Structure formats: structure tokens, C-alpha cells
Amino acid sequence: MADLRGTIAGIKSPNPFWLASAPPTDKEYNIVRAFKAGWGGVVWKTLGEDPPVVNVSSRYGALLDSNRTMIGFNNIELITDRPLEVNLREIAAVKKAWPDRAVVVSLMAVMTEEAWAGLARRVEPTGADGLELNFGCPHGMCERGMGSAIGQVPEMVEQVTRWVKNATRLPVIVKLTPNITNVLWSAEAAKRGGADAVSLINTINSIASVDLDAMAPTPTVGGKGTHGGYCGPAVKPIALNMVAEIARNPDTRGLPISGIGGIGTWRDAAEFLALGCGSVQVCTAAMTYGFRIVEDMIDGLSAWMDEKGYRTLADFQGRAVPNVVNWNDLNMNFVTKARIDKDLCIDCGRCHIACEDTSHQAIRILPGDGKRLFEVVDEECVGCNLCAHVCPVPDCITMHEQETGRPYLTWPEHPQNPARVQPPKAAE
Amino acid sequence: MSGVNGAARSNQLSLDRDLVSPFTALQAMAESSRCLYCYEAACVTACPTAIDIPGFIRKIGTGNVKGAARTILDANIMGGTCARACPTEVLCEQACVRNKAEAEPVLIGRLQRYATDVLFKAGVQPFTRQAPTGKHVAVVGGGPAGLACAHRLALLGHEVTVFEARTKAGGLNEYGLAAYKMVDDFAQREVDFILSLGGITVKTGVALGRDVTLAQLRQDHDAVFLGLGLAGINTLGVAGEDLAGVADAVDVIAALRQRAAPPVALAGPLAGRRVVVIGGGNTAVDAAIQSLCAGAAEVTMAYRRGTAEMGATGHEQDLARTQGVVLRTWLAPREILGTGGAVSGIVLERMAMDAGRLVGTGETVTIPCDVVLKAVGQKLAPGGLDGLALAGGRIQVDETLATSLAGVYAGGDCIKSGEDLTVQSVADGKAAAFAIDVYLKA
User: In what residue span(s) does the 4Fe-4S ferredoxin-type domain sit (chain B) (predicted)?
Assistant: First the structure.
């Protein structure tokens, strides 16, 4: 049985599955239910200075597929709307009752040292394991100079991080917003400010959908809507990229990362861990299915690690990072071609029409025995994978590396590159 | 007696409840998502009317349900009936690639019914006629072939008069399909929908050869379409066929569909009686199951060949079995026995294949019964076909469905174009309409 225990920024948890700062972590009742279900940690929904904020009615929007599976989720809810004192009391009670679980508290305040330091000092006596600075909320709070309004300015990220670090002995995780041009600027700023870790991504600015009867964005509040924060499975690729960029950037390499963004399964989590994360945070999947999903996250990750021979998270954490490179470092001489298994093929023709209409005309149809025979035209196939992605049958279309005998050749070295800087290396 | 028998059957069919329940919106949405939107989809090829099945299913999935219905009805104006009555298990659904993937096709028939039901419920007429051409076409027969032809001709701008021998239009949709496939008077609702397009006048109670001649129709109209069906009934050719209780299955079914008094030949209602249905086609199955619905005490289907040779699909045979029909094969009728002028039993000879030929073995079986229903096929009724060339007992047509007489076209069961199914008749009627349009514009 694999060991799923992990430590990030000095914060220990029995498994890497935390609930992200969000509605599921707003109060003791929910968090106790989460811990009973097996979650390794929580980031308490963001605290602010009193008086508490007031939330609107109608808060969530969703992107559903044709089976009504939640692909994307969007919210316009603000930070906790409960008094600070109530939250602090409950945090203390939870930590006392669940000492082995990670309890991190998310904070948000206006751009003054007094506000941030004051909040940090109020949290410390609760026994919480760490703080997460919410620099990410892209709706509502940013209009008051908080959330992403801070996270979008690297100098402010650095400044607030330093204020909080100076005010508390607790580990500080800086939560980054994806609503920026380059996540490295804010990650580097957090590191300069003394952050013990970063967590990302916060939600992406979004309009979930337009209600075509009301002619208004959803969620609709009395006929009007506003942009909200987008999350769920659809944002996972964006999150993975931002995590990878931080993990492989020389200035931030080694900075602990708590991964967030569309994580709903053990496999999602393993991908974030492979890109260097020390824990993962989940919200949408829990809000869709309830807390019990963590059971398979733990069981599935553990079973996969056993299969792969990984005893601890550290055994594979960051393993994929060296393989994330710039496009310019890819091998131009690598060749892969699609192969279609005619026995598995169910004759739907999707590979053919996708290739024919939108790609390289590399799949021809031949008359077959009782069904059409789809065949890859190697001379036309560029190995784009489109056919494999549109095929409804797993493993029916697979990609196969072709032996070329040619050396690793990057674009900067490529003979067709007019800006080629060095001659191609001779094959060894 | 019948009540006890009836109550013992689970999932018992009745004459006024759907054999297959309609999809809810949620079911339709879920099922539509199973369609792979195949390229040059096999299901379309398998449909005699070539409905763009992936196209209409995708429209259901996007919430464009009325658009889905239009796609269906544009190819097959009786898409509503076909959704209920088509043997999809040997047509579109058999071809579905999901069979290969997971041994379960997309339930195309039920999706088609869902879409057309939504349109019918909304009372929308989705089609508009082209500008009037001034041409007038006579359509003989108000069944699927005739109405499909009339609808397409009307769309193309022609005026159409439909001559129907019975009191209602609809043909076998109204008089022949099993009641549990066509509940809530669907056949008439569909006829009303078709006629609501305009340009079509239906004259009922007018039979070719009795009330009107082909020559007269040709003289009075610019073209004629014959969708006569097969109004003649094959007989068993055995002793005792004149006994009280021996009836044609189609007449019994028609009476059940019309909630009318049983045919005189049946000598009373079916309730409580022991029924033997002779035949192996869909009519035989429909007659057998509906006899049980009508309260028959026991029903046996006897067919002279094996189940593989039956005209009824495996699905229909299974339905008969689960409803309590006893299927007996390799038995050919030899004599109907009577007592006091009424049926008391039927003697059947055990049959076998000998060197590729069906032969009697000499061994006989007697089944005691009160009713014998004959379902051994229909044939072209002889009246009114003056001057028309026939082939194989049906009206001879060329590839454009033109008969041997100029300007006279034919389709449906009265020609030999494919399976004797509603969907094939609709395909014929539509194809003939296009051919007539070309002929009229030549």
C-alpha cells in the first residue's frame, strides 16, 4: 500500500487531497463532514475583516455536456459572509478535533499592512497549520481593490506576502490568479516576498452562458449578470500549464506548489503531482458529487502508485517536469503515424471525415468485409492525433513512432529555419 | 375465464396502451448523446426513406427538437407512424454502429417518436407548398403510399385528389397496424397533419373499379398514382373454411382497431375463445397478440415452416411469446373441424424440408379451437386494373415507378419494391411524386 502522506510548506496531511477555499469549506459543519469522508486537508473559505460581506442570491453558472455532466462551473460568490469571530472559533474547534488534517486559512484584505497583518495574527491562535493569501478572486472583491486586483500586480503580491510573513510564524501559501499575461511574474513576486508555497489556479474570469430568453449572463441576478470565476474540469489544462511553467522556471523551481484547477479524480491529481505539486485542492468535483469522491481519489492513486512501484508521493512528484520543454526544444525528426485496428473499428467514419474535412486527407475508405475499411495514408499522415481523439473506441486508433534513423533536431538547428543559429549536429 | 388468463400475464399488452412507452425529454437527451454522428451513417442507408438520422438526433441533442422533426418528416412524412411501427431491429437500429461497440444500438425509433410527438403536440405545420402548377393528380388509395405521394405532390405545387375506398384515410396505419403501436388515434392525427398542408382533397368511400375507373381518372387528371395496397386475401384452400369462427386476420384486426363489431365470419367476440392463427408474418403476430388483448382464452400461431423463415422479425416473435402466444412451426393446415357449423378444431400436417422442398410428412396434429384466423398473405385485388401490365401478381413498374400506362404511377404494397412495410410505401410514394413532377413538367 503506497504512502500518501505529504508535506507542503511544512504543512503535513495524511493524503494530498485538500478541499480548496470555496463554499464547501465555509463552516465547521461541512469541514467535519469532509474530514469524515477522508479529505487530507482544507483551505478554509476566505476570511476578511468585519463587517462580513453580503452575498447575492443566484451565484453559480455551469457548462454542461449533453449528459449534463459538469464540464465547467462559474461563481459570483464573495468571501465568507459570516463574522470573523465565528469562523475563528470553528477553525479552532476543527483543528482540535482533527489534529492530523491540514487546516489552512484563506485570507483577503485591502492593500494595507495593518489589515493583512491583523488578520494573520487573529488566525494564529486557532492552531491552523498555515495561511493562504487570496490574490485571485476575479469577481466582486476585485472591484473593492482586493482579490485579483492585488494578484494582477506583482509588486503588490510581493508586498502583501512580505507583510504577512513578517506578521506570523505560520507558513504562507500565495494563491495565484490565472487572469494575467504571465503567471511567472506573480509567482516570482510571491517568492521574493517570502512565500513558503504558491497555490494555483484561482478561477478564470468568465461568463458561464447567456440566458437567451432573459438576454442576460448567467447566473442572473434580477435580470443582470456579472463575470464570475470559472473552474471545473474545463480549466484543468490551463492550470496544468501554469503549474508546469512555475515548476520549470529557474527562478521559481523548487517553490512548493499546491495544484488547483479541475481536479476530480486520482488521475487528475497524479498529473498535478507529476508536474511538481505537493498537494492538490478540489472544489467543483466535490460540489458536483459530494465529499465521498475522495474515497476513490485515495484508493485509485494508491493502487496506481502500487502498480508503478511508487512507495511515496516524492517518488513521482515532479517526474514530468523535465519533459515539459519549449517548442523550440522538440525533436523535428520525430515521426508518428496513426494505425487503425480494423477489428476494433465499429465503422462510424468519424476519423475519416475529421481528417478529410479538417486535416490532411490521410484516411481513405476501402470496401471491407461487411463494414468499411479505414486505412491511414502514411504519405499524408502528419501524426496529428486528431483521428485518435475523435474515435469513440478506446485504443482503436493508436499512434506509432516511425523509425527514421535521423538525429534529434530542434527548430533552431533545422535547415529550413531561416534564422538557424548553428549547423545540424552530425548523427553519432 | 379470460380475465384470469389476462391477469396472469405480466407486462400484458392492451389495445389502448403503448407497446413502447414514449421517451421523456430527459431520456431523449440522454439517448441522443449516444449517437456518434457517423459519417455516411449505416442507419441512413438502412432506412428505406433515408432519413438523416444522425442529423435529427443531433438536433434533439441541441434542443432543436422541432428542427429534428422537420428533418424526419421531410424525408418521411409518416415518420410518426414509422417511429412506432417500423421493425427498427432489422432496419436502422440493426445498422447502428453502437451494436458493434456495445451490443446496444441508439434507440432511433424512440428518438424519432419523441421528436415528431413534440412537433405534433405543438401543432406546427413545418412545410410550405411551392407555387401552384395548375396540374391535378389523382391518387388512388389513402394509405401510406398514397398519402406520402399526395403530400409530396402538394408540396411541389400540384393539386391532388385522393380516392379512398374505406371511410377513413390512413390505410393499414388506420386499419392494419396493431392497436398498441398506434394508440391515441395516431393514424388519424397523422392524416390530419398531412392534409393540413393544403392542396389535398380526400374522397372516401370511392373504390377503383367500383365507383371510378382508371380510364376516367386518367382523363380527368394530369397524372395518376396507384397506392392500392393488397386488398385481396389468400385462402387456406382446406375443408371447413366456411365454418363459423374462420375469419381473415386483417378483418379481425381492422375491427379491433375501429372498436367495431367483430366480422360476421368470426361469429362473435374473441373473449374466452381458443384461437389458432395460421401464418408466420407480422399480420399473424399482430392478430395473435391482439386476440389475447381482446380476451381470447388461448392463442396458437401455426406456421408451415420454421421460425427463421417467418416473415415476422425475431423481435415480433419474442413479443408474441412473452405475451403468451404459443408459436408452433412446421405445421400446415389440412382441415378445419366443426361441430354444429362452428369451428371445433384444426388438423395440421407436420412439414419438413426434403431436398430443399417443403413437404408433408403425413403425420397430423389436431388443435382444438373455436376460432381460426387466416394470415397467409394478401394479394392484389383484381378490380379496376384495366390495361395495366402486372408482374408477379403485382403492378409492373419501371425504376421511376411508372406503370405500363403513360402518366400512371404505382407504389406501396401493390408493387414489389421491397418489404411490405409502411416505411417502404412512404419511400415509394415520395419517389413516385418526384417522378410524376418530372413527368408533369416535361
Answer: 26-56
The three three-digit cell numbers of residue A78, written as one number: 464573495
Q: Do B39 and A347 touch (CB under 8 A)?
A: no
Record: contact A349-B41, CB cut-off 8 A: yes
Say what the pTM is.
0.90
Please choose, from the candidates A79, A58, A80, A61, the residue with its C-alpha nearest in 3D space to the C-alpha of residue A70.
Answer: A61
**pLDDT tens by residue, A307-362:** 999 999 999 999 999 999 999 999 999 999 999 999 999 999 999 999 999 999 99
Tens of pLDDT, residues A122-153: 999 999 999 999 998 889 999 999 999 999 99
CB B250 within 8 A of CB B266: no
Q: Which residues of A are catalytic?
A: 137
Please give the CATH architecture assigned to the domain spanning B233-377: 3-Layer(bba) Sandwich (3.50)
Please write the tens of the pLDDT for every residue from A359-399: 999 999 999 888 899 999 999 999 999 999 999 999 999 99
In B, residues 85-124, which contact A (CB 8 Å cutoff)?
97-98, 100-101
What is the Cα–Cα distance from A411 to A329, expressed in whole angstroms?
Answer: 7
- Measured in angstroms, the CA of B113 and the nearest CA of chain A are apart by 20
Q: Say how far apart CA B351 and CA B354 lie, in whole Å.
A: 9
pLDDT of B6 strictly over 70: no
Q: How many CB pairs under 8 A join A and B?
A: 35
Domain boundaries, chain B: 21-122, 136-231+380-441, 233-377
Q: 1.10.1200.10, 1.10.260.40, 1.10.287.470, 1.10.1060.10: which CATH number matches B21-122?
A: 1.10.1060.10
Q: How far is A410 from chain B (nearest CA, A)?
A: 38
The interface pTM score, or ipTM, of the predicted complex is 0.85
Nearest CB partner across the interface for B101, out of A68, A371, A393: A393
Closest chain B C-alpha to A348 CA, distance in angstroms: 5
Closest CA to B347 of B238, B243, B270, B265: B238
Question: For residue A425, what pLDDT is reported?
Answer: 61
Domains and CATH numbers, chain A: 6-323 (3.20.20.70), 331-413 (3.30.70.20)
Class of domain B136-231+380-441: alpha beta
Picking from A255, A239, A237, the residue whose alpha carbon sits closest to that of residue A247 is A255
- Helix ranges restricted to H, B130-237: 144-155, 172-175, 186-195, 214-220
Q: What is the pLDDT of residues B59-112, one digit of tens each?
A: 999 999 999 999 999 999 999 999 999 999 999 999 999 998 888 999 999 999
Which chain B positions have a beta carbon within 8 Å of A68's beta carbon? Answer: 29
Partners of residue B30 in chain A, C-beta under 8 Å: 67
Q: How do strand A102-107 and strand A130-134 relate by DSSP bridges?
A: parallel
Q: Which amino acid is at A88?
A: L
Q: Do domains B136-231+380-441 and B233-377 have the same CATH topology?
A: yes
